Amino acid sequence: MPQQDLRLDKLRQLYDLYDTFMAKTDLVCHKGCATCCTCNVTITSLELDYIKATLGSGTAESPRERVEKRLAGKRFQPKTTINGFARLCMEGSEIPEEENDPAWGECPLLLNNTCTIYPARPFGCRSLVSQEDCSRSGVATLSPLVLTVNNLFMQYIEQMDCNGISGNLSDMILTGSSPSLSTGIVTISNQAVPVLMVPPEHREQVGPLLQDMAGICNG
Questions:
Q1: pTM of the model
Q2: Residues with Cβ < 8 Å from 134, sequence gap 6 or more?
Q3: CA atoms of 7 and 73, how far apart (whole Å)
């Protein structure tokens, strides 16, 4: 199997592992619930390749076409990745301030409150879940353990793409577009895992999951 195909298969296995873990969590999310689906999701270049490979040419309108028509003006553009954040924390360095406001608009890949790339959606979207109706409360609710697990999956996904880049979903989809569309695009370099962000109280609980994740990524 070509190296790129192998990496995409490992990413799919990580997604499946996450779905299996989350199946044990009582969530209120359902089709048509798009409160969390803003224009602020970030993805890695590996996840972008997964979207392209999974969707192929079978969609009526490609993600690039949808983004070109609905590109948000202001959107979250990260200054560091999850592994970059872990490295800064480990070094005791200053964490850059980042602005993120859901009021900037909905995801350009939504259609009638439904994701148009759902089977291929990146991890940032898969982890946007809640145990309470966030359309009523205004915020998503998750246990500290699930938040730890989300961070670990993001770290491993970035590790598999440590020579790639990350950025806002729209920016990543438009990378390499015509100069007129490339204005304002921001991407950042991925990094290898410096340390896994597992608080002491979660180490025993996530131990078996970490073994499964490492088996996928190192297999």
A1: 0.90
A2: 35, 36, 140, 141
A3: 33
Q: Which of 62, 56, 57, 50 has the alpha carbon at shortest distance from 15?
A: 50
- How much is the pLDDT for 63? 86
Closest CA to 63 of 72, 52, 74: 52
Question: If you search the block for the tokens 């370099």, which residue do you land on?
Answer: 189
Residues 6+ apart with CB under 8 A from 66: 108, 109, 116
Q: What is the pLDDT of residues 149-164, one digit of tens each?
A: 999 999 999 999 999 9
65 forms beta bridges with: none
According to DSSP, the residues that pair with 114 across neighbouring strands are 111
In DSSP notation, 102-143 reads GGG-B-TTEETTEETTGGG--HHHHT---SS-HHHHSS----
Q: Report, as ranges of residue numbers, the positions in the chain whose pLDDT lies below 50.
A: 1
Would you state the pLDDT for residue 59?
Answer: 56
Q: What is the pLDDT of residue 181?
A: 59
Rounded Cα gap, residues 214 and 176, in angstroms: 33
Q: Tell me, what's the pLDDT at 1? A: 47
Q: Do the Cβ atoms of 195 and 86 come closer than 8 Å?
A: yes
Cα–Cα distance between 84 and 193 in angstroms, integer?
8
Q: Would you state the pLDDT for residue 33?
A: 78
Gap between the Cα atoms of 148 and 82, Å rounded: 12
Indicate the domain borders of the chain. Answer: 3-218
